Structure prediction request, 141 residues.
Amino acid sequence: MSKHPEDRKKFLVGQSFKKDDMTAENYHSALDNCIRHADDFDLLGVGLVIGDSLEGFTMAEDVGNGWLLSHFAAANPSVCGLSGSLLHHLALLGTGFGCTNFNYQEDVGDLGLRRFKMKCAPSGFLRKFSVSRKEGCPCCS
Prediction:
């Protein structure tokens, strides 16, 4: 996929993908917001369209210093090896822009996603943290 924002939006906005889990509405809302504000991000993405159907996609942001930060990924589980293939091609695309490190999306306890991520043989893990409002802070009111 082109690194040019208009080309990315044309590809992503013209497609739809159904995620069959309880978080589908939130997922689609977050994806729509990301696409709507695509000009604010340096996104890279790949997808597989068979006929008129988007079977899978993944996208990440080039956050600088050689890092890609994964934002969204979805794949039709009946297309064998699609998730891994999309991730592989996204990583290859990223290397063309100088990205050598990949921070993959939070698995939010999804065991299938966690197993998939572990199959990628990560070189390390980033520390988890939480962000919350500080009680009494005038900035957080």
